[in-house]
Amino acid sequence: MKKSLLVIMALGCYASSSFATDARVVSMGRHDAFFMDEISVFKNPANISIYPNMVYGSYGVYSYNPKLDSAGASGQYGALNASNRDPVDPFFGAIMSYSLNQNTDNGSQYPMLSIGAVFNRRDEMLSYLTPGSRNYIGTKDQILPDPVGKVDLLLGYVLPNGAMLGGGGYVAIQKKKEGGDEAVASIYKGNLGLNWPITKSIDLEVSAGGGLINAVAKQDDPLSNYATDSLYVRLAKNDVFLRAEARMFTALAVLNGDFVPHVKFDYLDLGTLNISNFDLAAGIGLNINIDKGFFWAGLEFLYGQHDSGKTVSKESVGGRISFGIERNILTDWFVIRVGGQKVIRYVSDGTDAGYWEENVAADGSDNDLVGLGFGINIDNRLRIDFVAAEDIAYTFTNLISHPQHHLFNRVSATYSF
C-alpha cells in the first residue's frame, strides 16, 4: 500500500505542475507527445482522473485573413473598414470526480470515479468533412453540411493501487434533407485507455480507438439548366479510422524530470473513395522541471503512406525535432512560453519521382515552425493561456498608432475546484 501511495503522490505532484490547455501546448512546441496535459484526455480518457473536478474551456481559434485583416488600403478590405470577427470553434466542459473511499485514514482517495463532458470541441477527424481543409475528401464542387452536436463523453476509474482506466466517445452529426434527398456528414468515435504505475518511477500510458465516418455531399449538376437540380454523391459510408498510442514516463532524479519513449499510429480507410492513409510516429523525449519553469524536447521518426484511386500513391519518410519551454517571470502568476518544431521528410510516389518537404515556416497555423504564448496562474487553480500572434513583437505598438488585426489567436482556461 505504501508503494502505491508513493506512486499516487508522485503522479499528483507531476500533474499539478503540468496542467496544459490547448493554448499552452500550441505555444510550447505544437504537440504534446512527451509531456502530460489536459488535452490528452481526448486521446486517453483514463487521464481524466489526473485532473479531477476541473472546468475547461476555450474561446476558439482566430485565423488571420489577409482580405479582412490587412491594415490600410492595401488589403481588399482594410482593417479600418473591417467589422469585428470572432474566433471559431470555441468549446467548454468539465470533469467531476468522486472518491469511493470515504475512509481517509490511510491518506488515499482511491478507488475514485470520474466523469467528464466537453461540448463543441472540433475533433481533428472533422477536417476530412470540412470543405477547403487540406484533408477534405470531396471536391470544391461537393458541399457537405456542417456537423453539429459535437460532444465528448468521458469516464474514468482509478483502482486502489493507483492504476487508471478510462473510456470515451465523440459524436458530431448532420443530416440535411431536401425533398427525397439527404446530405450527410457524421463522425462517431470511441477511445479506451489506461495509465498504469509499473514501478515507483515508471508509468505506462496506452490508448486505442477508432470510429466511423459518413458523408453524402450535394453537388450541382453541370448538365442541368436549372440551379435547383443537384446530384448527391456518397463520399463515405461507415468508413473506418483507427489509432493507437503508447508512451512511458520514467522518472530521472538526476534531471528532475522524465525520459519518455513514445509511439503512435493513425489509419484511415475510405473504402467508398478507395483512399487509405497510414501514419506512424516513434521517438524519444525528455521533460524537465527547471527553476520556476518547465522544459521538454523530443526527436521522432515519421512514416506515412497515402493510397488513392484518383492519384499516384505516395510514401514519406522523415523526422521531427521539437521543444518547448515555459518560465515564470517577474511574478509567480505570469508565465511566458516559447516552442517550435521542425518537420522534414522525403516524399516519393512509387516511381522515379520524389521531393523533400517541410512544415511551413510561418503561416500562423498550429503546425508551423515556432510559437509564443503567455499564461496567468492564480493559486494553481485558475489558469488562462494565450497563443500570441506571430508578428506581435513587430506590431504591438499598432494598438496605439495604427489599426492592428489581432494580438492573440487562441485563448484557453481551466479552473480546478
Describe the model.
The protein has helices spanning 2-16, 22-27, 66-69, 392-395, 398-401; strands at residues 54-61, 91-99, 112-119, 142-143, 148-158, 164-178, 181-197, 202-220, 230-252, 257-270, 275-290, 293-308, 314-328, 334-348, 354-358, 370-378, 382-388, 408-416. It has a 16-stranded antiparallel β-barrel. The protein is mainly β. The chain has one domain (2-416).
Could you give the topology of this structure?
Layout: H1 2-16, H2 22-27, E1 54-61, H3 66-69, E2 91-99, E3 112-119, E4 142-143, E5 148-158, E6 164-178, E7 181-197, E8 202-220, E9 230-252, E10 257-270, E11 275-290, E12 293-308, E13 314-328, E14 334-348, E15 354-358, E16 370-378, E17 382-388, H4 392-395, H5 398-401, E18 408-416
Antiparallel strand pairs: 1-2, 1-18, 2-3, 3-5, 4-8, 5-6, 6-7, 7-8, 8-9, 9-10, 10-11, 11-12, 12-13, 13-14, 14-15, 14-16, 16-17, 17-18
Q: Supply the helix-strand structural class.
A: mainly beta
How many runs of DSSP E, i.e. beta strands?
18
Helix content: under 10%
Quote the beta fraction. Answer: over 45%
The end-to-end span amounts to: 27 Å
Tell me the count of domains.
1
Strand order of the largest sheet: 1-2-3-5-6-7-8-9-10-11-12-13-14-16-17-18
Radius of gyration: 23 Å
Q: Categorize the overall geometry.
A: globular
List the total number of helices: 5
Major β-sheet annotation: 16 strands, antiparallel, barrel
Low-confidence stretches: 1-17, 71-75, 78-82
Average of the residue pLDDT scores? 87
SSE pattern: HHEHEEEEEEEEEEEEEEEEHHE
